[in-house]
Specification:
Length: 221
């Protein structure tokens, strides 16, 4: 089971304070030690890049994607619109966030708020609970097997969040140990590692099953 990265949408009319609300939520959650990513969505058709910049010229010449790189930050311009799921996959890959704040997108499938009804302290309480549950669920095997006595991982995570001393009784299907220490893998790195390893091993002669694979790596220089 892939755990969904928590998303919170802020929507409302033009110049109604969406950005101010997004900034105060990002600022407060960051101060509390959470890793936050964000999306600024606009329905306008205009390009993100400005005409006659060097990156714009690269795009205009036909480059499908352009990276603008400086010693302190990196921007990517991609010459096509992307849906939110694609954007979330990329944000997960580059920053492994605890939550993504999405400004300017209203979708009934997304949790969120209309900026005109927003009560910041209530929103923060709700988001902290969501993030803590997500963090707990990330550590579970995610198979909803019921072996811990709860019907699924989400129920077990909620009980654990409420203070019960509970442990998942199933090992994740991907485990990474470095110098004897278990490295906790989020859903995206775990899926990526599993896909890369099984894809590569599946092409090798003599490999008939990919059950219980152990790889030993020593790359110390
Ligand atoms: S033992 Fe519980 S927490 Fe672990 S995978 Fe099964 S249902 Fe989820």
């Amino acid at each position: 089971m892939k755990r969904n990265l928590p998303v919170f949408a802020i929507y409302g009319g033009k110049n109604t304070g969406k950005t101010s609300l997004a900034v105060s939520i990002i600022d407060e959650l960051t101060k509390r030690g959470y890793s936050i990513a964000s999306v600024k969505h606009t329905r306008g058709e205009h390009s993100v890049d400005r005409e006659e910049t060097d990156t714009w010229k690269h795009q205009d010449a036909g480059a499908k994607a352009v990276a603008f790189s400086t010693p302190s930050d990196t921007a990517f311009y991609i010459k096509s619109g992307m849906d939110l799921n694609e954007i979330l996959e990329i944000l997960s890959l580059v920053s492994d966030p605890d939550m993504v704040i999405v400004e300017g997108m209203k979708d009934e499938n997304l949790p969120g708020t209309d900026v005109s009804h927003a009560e910041v302290s209530e929103i923060l309480d709700q988001l902290v609970e969501t993030i803590e549950l997500y963090r707990i669920e990330k550590e579970l095997a995610g198979s909803d097997c019921g072996m811990c006595g709860y019907p699924d991982c989400n129920t077990m995570a909620r009980e654990k969040y409420d203070g019960k001393d509970l442990h998942c009784t199933v090992e994740s299907d991907v485990a990474l140990d470095i110098q004897g220490k278990r490295i906790q893998l989020g859903p995206f790195p775990s899926e990526m590692l599993k896909g890369a390893i099984t894809g590569m091993l599946g092409t090798l002669k003599g490999v008939e099953s990919l059950e219980n694979v152990v790889i030993r790596l020593n790359s110390e220089e």
